[in-house]
Amino acid sequence: MDRTAKELYSVQGTGEKLGFIRTMDELEEADAVISALEKEIKLNKRTFSDFAVLYRVNAQSRALEDSFRRMGIPYNIVGGIRFYERKEVKDMLAYLRLILNLKDTVSLRRVVNFPPRGIGIKTVNKCVQRAEETNKELFEILANPTGMDIRGKQADSLRTFHDIIVKYHDLVDKLDARELIAALSEEVGILNYYKNSDDPEELERYQNIRELFNSVDAYIGRNPQGGLKGFIEEVSLLTAIDSWNDQENRVTLMTLHSAKGLEFPIIFITGLEDGLFPLYRSLDSRKELEEERRLFYVGLTRAKDRVYLLYATHRRRMGADYDLVLD
Question: Is the dihedral of CA 252, 258, 263, 269 positive or negative?
Fold first, then answer.
């Protein structure tokens, strides 16, 4: 590796040994973080603000956030947005809310032209006006755009959108929730909208939508009879809890990039698996692998007292399952 030789030392002496935790998957990894955190609080009189959990990519926060919320552990995201508040996740949730309730005009207006399908604000306003004049639901109006002098591509887009939503509304009780959300996101084009972009931020949005699939999987695993409606209700409840939980004493969650310059008594570095940290793209590039090494060094040196290193032997990433093969 191309790096300057240097001698490292600790001002505080030898210190605690590294905590090394092997887990089965990202859900068990999140639970292991909580278990170690609670043990530190009990034995060493720690507070929530003494802890920071670091990860390589933002999509990793979902499993951690879900577990923290269920256990009532307050947390704060540094340099990012909470998972269920990210635009692309809120867009996908709006689609799901709409297929569950065709009268949900807030969700309808959020996604009727996303991904872009040529339905402008003037067209939407015409539909709203017709709904008010005829005392009908806004969603009903979309089925007959020509009656509002909306023609051509815009009329076709409205009808197509209407028909897709009706299709999945009728499939809610027939399809597994995971299958439904995957098929819906594919058909409305939200996956390809982000996947086909060269913008790293757009690709991260793609990762977050695929991570939402994992969230549905995890929910169904805990509640086999819950279905899509139960999942949406749980998300609504958990995000509502966030709105009134104003504690300043919180665990910090952030990417390793965001951690530069910060220090905490206890650090957890999660996802230490080939392909995730280090990222796949770095494995064939000396320069990029060196950057991953630097990031790992950043993570290790954020801790004042102790570091926990965690990895999973099996992880759902980008909507697919991966196994970590150990030599």
Answer: positive
Architecture of domain 19-74+248-323: 3-Layer(aba) Sandwich (3.40)
Nearest-10 crossing angle of helices 177-188, 200-222: 160
Given a contact cutoff of 8 angstroms between Cβ atoms, the answer to whether 310 and 270 are in contact is: yes
pLDDT tens string 134-148: 999 999 999 988 777
205/216 Cα distance (integer angstroms)? 17
The answer, as to whether pTM is greater than 0.85, is no
CATH class of 87-238: mainly alpha
pLDDT per position as a tens digit, 200-211: 888 899 999 999
Domain ranges in the chain are: 19-74+248-323, 87-238
Neighbours of 16 (CB within 10 A): 12
What amino acid is encoded at 170 in this protein?
A: D
Alpha helical stretches, state H, 101-259: 105-111, 121-134, 138-141, 152-171, 177-188, 190-195, 200-222, 227-244
Q: Which of 159, 118, 167, 154 is nearest to 140 (CA)?
A: 159
* CA 255, 256, 257, 260 torsion-angle sign: positive
Q: Give the model's confidence band at 13: pLDDT under 50 very low, under 70 low, under 90 confident, else very high.
A: low
Specify the range with the lowest mean pLDDT, choosing from 24-28, 246-250, 295-299.
246-250
